[in-house]
Amino acid sequence: MKKRSWAEPWKIKMVEPLRMTSRQTRERALAEAGYNTFLLRSEDVYIDLLTDSGTSAMSDRQWAALMLGDEAYAGSRNYYDLEQAMRDVYGYSEFIPTHQGRGAEYLLSQLMIEPGQFVPGNMYFTTTRYHQELAGGRFVDVIVDEAHDPSSTFPFKGNVCLNKLQGLIDEHGAGKIAYLSLETNVNMAGGQPCSMKNIKATCDLCHQHGIPVFLDATRCVENAWFIKDREPGWADRAIAEIVREICACTDGCTMSGKKDSLVNIGGFLAVNETKLAEEARNLLVCHEGLHTYGGMAGRDMAAMAIGIRESIEEDHIRSRVGQVRYLGQRLQHAGVPIVQPIGGHGIYLDAAAFLDHLPREEFPAQALAAALYLDSGLRTMERGAVSAGRDAEGNNIFPRLELVRLTIPRRVYTQAHMDVTAESVMEVWDRRREVVGLRMTHEPVRLRFFQAMFSPTVGGTVLPAESSPESAVEC
Ligand SMILES: *Cc1c(COP(=O)(O)O)cnc(C)c1O
To answer: Ligand 1, residues 50, 53, 56, 186: which to mutate, most atoms within 8 A of Cβ?
Structure first.
């Protein structure tokens, strides 16, 4: 085959100007934000890799669909289109729209979990675990050990460890397990996929014991790409078929449309059981809105119906994962410690290895995210101890993974943006010994990473200004 790069199957029709900032401006903005990149103003950011959630670029077809929004309170045409798109692509029979993924997580957790029950999952996700715990559930991590080792090159680090799952069933009995929460392309592990073989074996084991399986389908399409790319026997299958096959093993899913589905807002709960769907719709009208819009405007549903169909186009998903790989390979070549193998939606810097002079109590990942912003206006996100929060006894949880996530929005940035990103990470890598740790000065009770504030442990900055002032960009 001829060698061709991952280039995009689209061209740019409209641009959004970005503001370039000075070190001085960034210094001030970062201090005001309490060294938390979530609290920065977007206008102070140059390249925004905080998240790929709701930050993707819509296609001209999606923008055109906004004009066809049917804003009826009840029975909007766009609802039926969206329901049809979900059924065609994911294959579940019952569709419950929500404003975004956590709306669906709330409904599922409230309806499926009895207080004291366990909810095993292949690593936790922040909002997912929050809603499970809010409903009285106890999350248990049953992901394979490789997932907790940033340097392991195991190709399916999202896999469920069947022994851990069997052990939980043996210890507590299937009746104490509400359901298995199965995430595809596991976000907190670095965007790491599950193999089809493991998905099937996991679902079989659960179903033998009468335990339902609910998929977190947020990045199911990206997972399907890795199955096609890495798992023997799947290379000739269409992404659409693989997605359907994953979903067919499970009893339903929660979905954040803000990721795979290429929209700025939206989500859904989908199930096969009619009774559960009816209960979910009833709870939905109390919290999100009527069951034919669930927190979305008609135009949002119109855009999502198209986005879902675009998300499974082979050329789209190839270039999406290809761009992430391009950035990752540049960093790998420079010797920067990143989570291996390169994941589907972002690059995860191993902050514990990157800043090995900082103790975990000084939040190295939070400090690294702050230092990257100071260096270039690049915004990234902490995924380590700050995100993990505290345990039931109130102690800080120090997960093995202390990461900084560089998340790539879909169809937004160019290869030159990826180059600048890599250059900035390499610059901070060269100066890593100068990076100062942080202490937390404000700690919210719930999902603290969103709003926590910090200050540098010494010297008033996380990365001293360079002795030679910022020079003109070299071409
Ligand atoms: C983003 C995300 C969610 C939550 O979805 P929101 O739309 O942000 O509420 C749940 N699970 C995973 C894996 C996610 O990445």
So the answer is: 53
Write the pLDDT tens digit of every residue in 311-341: 999 999 999 999 999 999 999 999 999 999 9
Domain made up of 23-52+314-456: CATH architecture: Alpha-Beta Complex (3.90)
Domains 23-52+314-456 and 60-311 share a fold: no
Annotated active-site residue 126? The verdict is yes
The active-site residue out of 79, 106, 125, 139 is: 125
125 is catalytic: yes
Architecture of domain 60-311: 3-Layer(aba) Sandwich (3.40)
Q: Would you call 300 a catalytic residue per the annotation?
A: no
Specify the long-range contacts of residues 164-172, CB closer than 8 Å, at least 24 apart. 164/120, 165/120, 165/202, 165/205, 165/206, 166/205, 168/118, 168/120, 168/140, 168/142, 169/205, 169/209, 169/211, 172/118
- Quick: pLDDT tens for 126-147: 999 999 999 999 999 999 999 9
Domains in the chain: boundaries: 23-52+314-456, 60-311
DSSP state of 183: E
Residue among 52, 216, 251, 375 flagged as catalytic: 216
